[in-house]
Amino acid sequence: MNSGEPSTGQQIGVSLALVVIDFMLIAWMAFGVGMEAWADGYESDSASATGAASAASQAAWVLVGGAVLTGGGLLALGWRIPGVVQLVVLFGGAVLVSSLAAGG
Question: Whole-model pTM?
Fold first, then answer.
């Protein structure tokens, strides 16, 4: 192990801190999609009720972009554990949020 590489303990600590932030972001995005879906339920014309799909698309792009930027950046810096955790958690959140709008 190089002296410049972070220790496993540091990487796990950073991973845990980032996972808390990730879960808060995913919860906020899921809440926004849920509110849009709830509002769409009150639309008189169901063909024009696309707020949830639009919100889910935006949320998925934010989460995927966050995964690529933070996960990829951490991997590029040599922080393998937090980088992989970021990629897995944020991509999983994007799948979750997009499935909420699909009704699943």
Answer: 0.85
